[in-house]
Input
Amino acid sequence: MNDTRSTDVLIIGAGLAAMATALSLPEHLQIDMLCKGNVHECASAWAQGGIAAVLDPADSIEVHVNDTLIAGAHINNKDAVRDILAQAPAAIAWLIEQGVAFDLQDDGSTLHLTREGGHSQRRIAHVKDRTGLAVHEALLRACRARTHIRIHESHAAIQLLHSQTDSASTCFGAWVRLPDGRVTTWLAGHTVLATGGLGQLFSRSTNPWPATGDGVAMAARAGCSVQDMEFVQFHPTALQIDGCAAGLITEALRGEGALLRLPNGERFMLRHDARAELAPRDIVSRAIHAEMQQSGLAHVLLDITHQPREWLTAHFPGVTQLCADHGIDIATQPIPVAPCAHYACGGVRATINGCTDLHNLYAVGEVACTGLHGANRLASNSLLECVVMGRGAAQVITTSAPVNDTAQSKLLMRSMQSPLLDLAQHSPIAQVLAQLMEECAGIHRNQQGLSQTARQINAWQKMLGTSDPALSNRLEACSLIVNAALLRTRSCGAHTRTDENSEESMQHEPEMT
Ligand code: FAD
Ligand code: SIN
Output
């Protein structure tokens, strides 16, 4: 353990939720933003389809709410759904103020809105099929233009600093691994978790490498409640090259008419759901998975060859390029696709302003769970949630008392029994763990596979102790998913129990659903 640093607001993460928070805080606060790799390696920068918002007079918040509840199997937090979706038009206006140039209709009068699965209306504001990149670049430029915001690349938080004072628990910073491997104590008046998702806990994922669930693991260890961890959403159409996920093929492609087919050309989605290719994601993912299993396929095909080349390159330059890089001409060839781990619907329980169970600790974006998504996220609702939560958390921070210096040093003395960090690398365990998660906690789950995975995770946790904090965080996040999946014995949304009617599954009946 080395030097101690301090700041007014420590933001762990540098994606959209982090930057929306930072840019909404007043300039007299010093803000330090951390990211595990480089600043571009985050889901926000990789987002394709766009951001959902009611912007068309023919649409309404009520209809958007209804679509969100249907996708989420009605176990969403209805107040959170209403409050977040009602703020969507303001969130889009704020992004435009920050310099995001959303695509316009041909006559330039209003935003061009596209459509995605589960949406009954066109309501996705976008920048071609590279929305995330455009948003992330604009916000990064705005952050870099402000001297009170500092971004630290290759700085990984490994543990939250927290302590019990009177009857409440307070967070006052984090232990952070520096690029040279040393660990520093970073004290903060307010700490914001914006660490994103956990898709990389599975062997096939659309997520960037830092998405290993660190935030939810650190928060759970610090005593925060977590919620809905069993609901890991699989995106139906990740590009498949040599049996590996090679990138995302945006759902907007199906929104604009792409069809799912078997290798013999047969269209199969209508056999599974009347909404066909535009059914919510969990349904399309399960349908593809079932077809692949039934016919022993490594992937199915997504066909947009009915659209002319010029239209494809104008509307989907990102997908066209991604496929061309792998030798696929989407104007003439169908795209090999299969479902891959994509989004964590659950996470650290938080209000829509990011408040958690710990004083001075906020969780924003994908790491948090407001209940907006319920059992399965409606496409393009998550970038929206990042903006709404980031702006809301900034308001709370601005009007709340920070943990002061004297309190911080007292708390630090009390919590200095730090883990011994030899930073051992146990990467083979991470790989086996990801394979196990894919097989036993993936699209299909049952009691036997989940229990076996839980036992293995437990054994690794005992063996490793605190010797490798990064791996410990992975194991903790997997354990949260697997144990939540064991408790929910019936299928719901993105969580499918193949044994839901068997006696064995009933041994883990949840206390509440
Ligand atoms: P991220 O943008 O993932 O940022 C997380 C940050 O935390 C990163 O900077 C990372 O380095 C950092 N971090 C992680 N762990 C640590 C640590 N221990 N210490 C320090 N830093 C850490 N949603 C939509 O609404 N519309 C879309 O079109 C869309 N398309 C998508 C396409 C893809 C390929 C993917 C993967 C996701 C997509 N999503 C989309 C989901 C959406 O992009 C994410 O939910 C959202 O960007 C999450 O933002 P975030 O700020 O919470 O996290
Ligand atoms: C996509 O473009 O298909 C991803 C949209 C999302 O994850 O919300």
